[in-house]
């Protein structure tokens, strides 16, 4: 049976998303002539944090997904985690970019991200037993 590399698919989509967020930071730096920090611009701070938060959560979650995939996790588990992570990170980034305070996008994005992170963590622990 041919195995489709599920983690590679979501890693590719998340990589493209990360590049997009990186471009937003570069554009903001050029437009505001800001070399370090946020220049006191709360909107730009949201853009920076969307990029940074993505970089903080996605790598570990993808590693957990890859380990689960290597250990023959069910494809539905991997796809569920991949969709939760991808949608969660996009919705969270949107919330940070467009809202200065708490928003349903930020909260729901974090919940989806935590569902993927915790779900894959538990999946990997359960596999051991």
TrEMBL record:
Keyword Transmembrane: yes
Main location: membrane
Cellular location(s): Membrane
Biological classification of the source: Bacteria, Pseudomonadati, Pseudomonadota, Gammaproteobacteria, Alteromonadales
TM region positions: 6-26, 76-95, 107-128
Source organism superkingdom: Bacteria
Entry keywords, A to Z: Membrane, Transmembrane, Transmembrane helix
Gene3D superfamilies (alphabetical): Membrane associated eicosanoid/glutathione metabolism-like domain
Name of this protein: MAPEG family protein
């Amino acid at each position: 049976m041919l195995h489709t590399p599920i983690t590679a698919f979501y890693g590719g989509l998340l990589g493209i998303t990360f590049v997009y967020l990186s471009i937003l930071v570069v554009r903001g730096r050029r437009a505001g002539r800001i070399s370090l920090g946020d220049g006191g611009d709360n909107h730009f701070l949201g853009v920076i944090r969307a990029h940074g938060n993505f970089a903080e959560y996605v790598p570990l979650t993808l590693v957990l997904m890859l380990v689960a995939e290597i250990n023959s996790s069910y494809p539905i588990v991997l796809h569920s985690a991949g969709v939760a992570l991808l949608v969660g990170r996009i919705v969270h980034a949107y919330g940070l970019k467009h809202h200065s305070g708490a928003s349903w996008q930020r909260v729901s994005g974090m919940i989806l991200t935590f569902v993927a992170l915790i779900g894959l963590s538990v999946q990997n622990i359960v596999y051991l037993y």
